[in-house]
Write a structure and sequence with these properties.
mainly alpha; Four Helix Bundle (Hemerythrin (Met), subunit A)
């Protein structure tokens, strides 16, 4: 049987590592397309960690908007990151595949500004998710 907080920790730890990588890419001003994609992935993983902390056995899907909507049913605080989730979802396909764009390739199209905005958005997602996970840990320890 899966232990919810243990599984949440696995997902949140990976998300935190992904976030560090994005921060490094911003500092280095490189690989903008990949950084935008990893921002989306980090947001997805930290939100999935929250759902695992709630006891979900399986979390399927890649849309931050859908994950936020599901989490908002349990904690309305997640509603404040709907716009950030929406923007991050836009990086799921076009940052990786040339046919996700009308022309050019992802490494040519995405910019340092895109990566900076992605980092801002995912940082907002992390703020809410970290607060939620901390509440869940506190509740479990009581």
């Amino acid at each position: 049987m899966m232990q919810p907080l243990k599984e949440a920790l696995r997902w949140s730890s990976q998300a935190e590592d992904d976030l560090k990588f994005v921060e490094w890419l911003v500092e280095e001003k490189t690989f903008f397309d990949k950084g935008c994609f990893i921002s989306q992935q980090a947001g997805e993983k930290i939100l999935k960690a929250c759902l695992y902390a709630l006891g979900k056995k399986q979390v399927i899907g890649h849309s931050l908007v859908e994950l936020v909507a599901e989490l908002s049913q349990k904690d309305p605080q997640f509603q404040v990151i709907q716009n950030e989730a929406r923007r991050l979802d836009r990086y799921y396909i076009p940052t990786r595949y040339p046919n996700g764009l009308p022309g050019g390739t992802p490494f040519q199209v995405f910019t340092t500004e895109d990566l900076g905005e992605a980092l801002e958005d995912v940082s907002s997602v992390f703020k809410i998710a970290r607060e939620f996970l901390e509440k869940m840990r506190e509740m479990k320890s009581k």
